[in-house]
Specification:
single chain; alpha/beta; 6-stranded antiparallel beta sheet; 20 helices; about 70% helix; flat
Length: about 1150
């Protein structure tokens, strides 16, 4: 892509029209200072969107216009047209300005906004124009920039600045989310605190409300049940009262007759009873004494059995303890005998140790002197032998070394001859590999450029897709928030969050339509486009219940099982002029919701305009009609129409969203194609890189071999000299070693003769071993003695405890035997008394039995009399009592009924006598009422109003918690986006910086003829704050800061960096404004050659005063002032003059 031509009209000093065709390679613009050549650069910057007055060198917009001269009038409008060519594709950007219309931009003839120009430039690969336009002083500014400023320019070059902006926007959104979460947390906490504050009151009010409900229910039930029971009771009591009056008269007559018969019989019976009472009293007294004696016998027998049981248990325990005592006594005697034997063994062992210890002490004194002398002689002999061996080995080693050195000298001479020949061949091979490596590096650069071009195109497409996706999301959010009614938005959100498991679809989302039908369908449907289609009436009820419970408003539903599709009128011919078709056939509906769509649109006719309806349709039609402009003709005859300010309906919003989604799908296809092309380019780059690396590795390897051969040759010559000197030293050392060896042999013979006369003291070792064994045996005897004494002590203690247990059981057993004898004596006395009392009671019983025969007849007669009398009296009393009781009951029932009526009739009107509850159930109901009243009274003061407040707070807290969870999910997503952005940008920027640094180093060495330069990524607070620093060392100088470089060196360093950046970023064009001004002739030639080389890969437009730069241009433009204030341009194609 390159600038094909630039057209100027009325811009700054260029009056009239000027057409400047540019070369795809290098175009030079020359002219004296003040001639207006920099205005050409201003025109390029202005048409590409620059608006900064400082960069355009103006103070106000009117200064862009040609101001006129003495011979030419001022321009009223300026016009700059830029033509860009990319292969066969031509694109134009035009910008005009006039005081009346202001600044206006056009792209390919279509008017665009200034903010849309950035996207156009990215499509044209002009996104990094800040690097493509290098003005006067910007080369030096590149050197003087702070590291962070330099990084920012690199980010703009590689499109990373948009990631920085998006990340900053995301950080701001994240901060807003966190702030909103904090606000929600505070609000939830405040509402929760308020709910906690009123929680006791709410709990009290809830209990009170429930008690009031139950109390009211039971009171009503109790009142009606009790009233019914009382009414029935009054009827029963009146009937009973009349029966009691008849029965009372008869009972009183019978009572008088039976009273007379009883009195006569009692007089005779009284005397007999007095004698019988005396006998009965005697019998009872004897019976009581007999029972007491029996209890004594039973108690004594129980105590005797218990004593016998204890005695039997003690006998068993005593037998076991005696056996245990005998066993302990046997073990104790055996332990004492073992201890006595151990003491005798210990005494014998100690005596034996003392004797051996004395004998060892005397032998040690004698042996010490012998050992000392022997060690001295042996040490002397050993030293002499070691010295002799050393001298022998030394002599042998020196002879071997001399032989080896002589052999090495001969080998070194032969190897030197061969190495000189091989070194010459290796040098020739290194030169061949160096040439192949240079060619491979050029091929790699071409492949990298192709890969970068594809990468930039892919990134631009991805960025555009991301922007469209964000736009779709914003459009959906805006449509939902601004267009959807609150109840619809609430239900759709509940369904998305899983709180409402009902399948539903808004009518506007159930179909899609062409843009031409949007106005018509929105006008016809109106608010019906926000109705909700559901599967069944039950689903609609669930949605309505949720709206009621949350008080979220009202909306309309279309249950599919309740509605019927409408059908078009059969008598309408769609072929008539102006008829578009039936609305249901013109839209694409979701098959699941097609029934709802046809219910609303099945009989709607769409026509082109108002006149079509008036001309072709009858006023008696029974179907609605709508025009494409939105006039609606209802079946009832009414007509609605007009013009909205803007299409604000959900259908229009869905249409725009679908349009963006189609663009996104096309763009994703383009991205896939770009990825495929990038994969191919990257494959070629990897192949070229591998070839470069292989050649580089081989070249380095061959160079290392050559250097190693040269070093080896030097080492070989040095070794020959050292070997000759070493041979002379070995000859002298051999003579000295032979003399020392003879002296050593004589010393060894003398010492061995003296050593043979010393006495051997081997007996001492056997005495020492015997002493050690005796001491070990003595220690073992003492340890066994201590263990035996401890065992005897423990056995003695156990024997003592067993003896005490036997004695204690014997004492207890004697006590039990005494107790058994005493109990036998008491039991015999109690048995004798029981026998006497039993005989006395038998005599009294026989006498009473004799009297009982006569008394039974009398008792029977008296009983019958009394029974009849009692029955008569009871009957009279019963009748009287019943009469009074019935009167009392009637009075009580009437009083209770009156009280019930006064208390409850107004609140719970009595419906009349009906089937009532039982008395037990009614009593339970009244008990429940009283319990509820007591419970309500126990609650104390309560406020039922806090219940509604608590419900409102709970709903509000739940809603806020849902929002909080949504914000938390958003926070997590934003953090993930930031991490992914940081990771992606880190890789992108790191790779770009690595490539720029490598190319910058090569260009620096090329322009300055050597030296070294590199880019360093400084450490900052974060990756985004890490600046880029320049480290440079010109040839022949030490590493130093950029400020210490000369002006020319700084310019060449800046040019190297700028050209490296443009190459790596694959900038399609670059505009250089007098960047060669500070260079001397020698460095100027290098710069010109570099510019010529780069002109083969990108378009260069150069403003210059230097001849060497002009000579290398393809096209040369001269700018001059034909008269003050008016610039003229003259162009020359230098190819025609070469």
């Amino acid at each position: 892509m390159y600038i094909e031509r630039l057209r100027l009209k009325g811009f700054k000093s260029f009056g009239g029209s000027h057409d400047l065709p540019f070369s795809p390679g290098m175009t030079a613009v020359v002219g004296p200072n003040g001639s207006g050549k920099s205005n050409i650069l201003d025109a390029l910057a202005w048409v590409l969107g620059e608006g900064s007055p400082m960069k355009l060198r103006i103070s106000r917009q009117q200064e862009l216009l040609f101001q006129g001269t003495a011979a030419s009038s001022a321009a009223k409008e300026c016009d700059v047209i830029l033509t860009l060519r990319d292969s066969d594709r031509v694109s134009t950007i035009r910008r005009t300005f006039s005081p009346d219309t202001g600044s206006v931009l056009f792209h390919d003839g279509q008017k665009i906004r200034l903010q849309d120009l950035d996207e156009v430039k990215r499509m044209l690969r002009l996104g990094g124009e800040t690097f493509a336009f290098i003005g006067q002083g910007e080369v030096a500014e590149t050197i003087r920039q702070r590291p962070l400023q330099r990084r920012m320019r690199l980010e703009v070059l590689f499109g990373i600045d948009q990631y920085r902006r998006k990340r900053n926007e995301t950080d701001a959104r994240l901060a807003g989310v966190k702030e909103e979460m904090g606000r929600l947390t505070t609000l939830i906490a405040e509402l929760s605190r308020r709910r906690e504050e009123i929680a006791p009151a709410v709990e009290t009010a809830a209990k009170a409300r429930e008690l009031l409900r139950l109390l009211d229910e039971h009171r009503k039930q109790a009142y009606h049940g009790r009233r019914t029971a009382l009414e029935r009771r009054l009827g029963d009591l009146a009937e009973s009262l009349s029966l009691l009056e008849i029965e009372g008269d008869d009972a009183r007559r019978w009572r008088v007759m039976w009273e007379r018969g009883e009195q006569a019989f009692l007089d005779a019976f009284r005397k007999e009873r007095e004698a019988e009472k005396a006998l009965l009293s005697d019998f009872e007294s004897v019976t009581r004494s007999l029972e007491a004696a029996r209890r004594v016998c039973v108690s004594g027998a129980g105590s005797l059995r218990s004593a016998k049981v204890r005695k039997a248990a003690m006998v068993g325990m005593l037998s076991k303890n005696r056996e245990n005592l005998l066993l302990r006594d046997t073990e104790l005697r055996r332990g004492k005998e073992d201890c006595a034997q151990l003491r005798r063994n210990a005494s014998e062992s100690a005596s034996n140790c003392s004797e051996i210890r004395e004998r060892v002490r005397r032998a040690e004194a004698e042996q010490a002197e012998i050992v000392r002398r022997r060690e001295a002689l042996e040490n002397r002999i050993n030293e002499a032998r070691v010295r002799g061996d050393f001298l022998e080995r030394r002599s042998r080693s020196m002879r071997e070394e001399r032989t080896a050195l002589e052999r090495d000298v001969r080998g070194f001479r032969a190897e030197e001859t061969t190495l000189v020949r091989d070194f010459g061949e290796k040098r020739t091979l290194v030169e061949e590999f160096s040439g192949a490596y240079s060619r491979a590096v050029e091929a790699k650069g071409a492949a990298a450029t192709e890969c970068q071009v594809e990468t930039n195109a892919l990134h631009a497409a991805v960025r555009t897709a991301s922007q469209i996706e964000n736009a779709i999301d914003r459009m959906k959010d805006r449509a939902e928030q601004a267009l959807l009614p609150e109840p619809v938005r609430f239900l759709l959100s509940a369904a998305r969050l899983g709180k409402l498991t009902v399948g539903m679809r808004m009518v506007a989302d159930a179909f899609s339509c062409p843009d031409t039908l949007t106005n018509a369908l929105e006008a016809y449907l109106g608010g019906r486009q926000y109705w909700l289609a559901v599967a069944s009436l039950d689903d609609a009820k669930r949605c309505i219940d949720l709206l009621k419970s949350k008080q979220a408003g009202r909306t309309t539903f279309l249950p599919l099982d309740q509605i019927s599709p409408r059908t078009p009128a059969p008598d309408i011919r769609l072929s008539q002029p102006g008829f578009v078709g039936w609305a249901a056939d013109l839209v694409r509906s979701d098959p699941e919701w097609d029934r709802a769509v046809r219910h609303l649109l099945g009989d709607v006719l769409v026509v082109e305009c108002f006149e079509t309806v008036a001309r072709n349709l009858s006023s008696h039609r029974r179907f609605p009609v709508v025009t494409l402009d939105g006039e609606v003709f209802a079946a009832t005859g009414s007509v609605s129409g007009g013009k909205r300010r803007a299409s604000e309906g959900a259908i229009a919003a869905n249409s725009l969203i679908r349009e963006q989604e189609e663009k996104l799908a096309a763009l994703r296809t383009e991205i896939d194609r770009r990825k495929s092309a990038l994969g191919g380019a990257e494959g070629r780059e990897r192949e070229a890189t591998k070839n470069v690396e292989d050649l580089k590795e081989r070249l380095q390897e061959e160079r290392l071999h050559a250097e190693e051969m040269e070093r080896h040759l030097e080492r070989l010559r040095t070794a020959i000299e050292k070997t000759a000197f070493r041979l002379a030293e070995l000859s002298d050392a051999e003579k000295t070693a032979d003399s020392d060896r003879e002296e050593t042999v004589r010393t060894i013979a003398s010492c061995e003769e003296e050593l043979s006369g010393l006495i051997d003291g081997s007996n001492h070792s056997s005495d020492t071993a015997l002493l050690s064994a005796a001491e070990s045996a003595d220690a073992l005897c003492r340890e066994r003695l201590r263990a035996g004494e401890a065992l005897v002590a423990r056995l003695a203690e156990e024997f003592s405890r067993a003896s005490e247990a036997v004695r204690s059981l014997e004492r207890d057993m004697a006590s039990v035997e005494i107790e058994i004898a005493s109990l036998w004596e008491k039991l015999r006395d109690a048995g004798s008394e029981c026998a006497r009392l039993w005989r006395r009671r038998r005599d009294v019983r026989e006498e009473l039995s004799g009297r009982a025969g006569a008394r039974e007849l009398e008792d029977l007669r008296l009983a019958r009399l009394r029974k009849h009398l009692g029955d008569a009296g009871k009957r009279v009393s019963s009748v009287d009592l019943g009469h009074r009781e019935v009167d009392r009951q009637i009075e009580n029932v009437e009083r209770e009924r009156a009280q019930l009526i006064d208390s409850w009739e107004e609140q719970y009107p009595y419906p009349g006598v009906r089937e009532g509850v039982g008395e037990s159930d009614l009593a339970g109901i009244w008990n429940t009422v009283r319990r509820y009243e007591r419970d309500l009274k126990a609650i104390g003061v309560y406020d039922l109003g806090v219940l509604s407040e608590d419900s409102s707070l709970a709903d509000r807290i739940g809603f806020l918690n849902e929002n909080f969870e949504d914000l938390r999910a958003g926070e997590t997503e934003l953090c993930r986006l930031i991490e992914e952005t940081d990771r992606y940008v880190g890789t992108l920027f790191g790779n770009a910086l690595t490539d720029i640094a490598a190319r910058f180093s090569d260009l620096f060495r090329h322009l300055l003829g050597g030296g070294e330069a590199r880019l360093e990524l400084l450490e900052g607070d974060s990756f985004w704050d890490s600046g880029v620093d320049i480290v440079a060392r010109p040839p022949g100088k030490k590493m130093q800061s950029l400020a210490q470089l000369s002006g020319g060196e700084q310019s060449l360093t800046g040019i190297s960096l700028l050209f490296a950046c443009m190459e790596v970023a694959a900038v399609p064009l670059a505009v250089l404004d007098e960047v060669d001004a500070a260079l001397d002739e020698y460095n100027l030639l290098r710069f010109a050659a570099l510019a010529r080389e780069y002109a083969t890969r990108l378009q260069l437009i150069v403003m210059t005063h230097r001849r060497a730069t002009m000579e290398r241009a393809d096209v040369l433009y001269g700018v001059t002032m034909s008269e003050p204030g008016l610039s003229q341009v003259v162009g020359i194609n230098l190819e025609d003059w070469r």
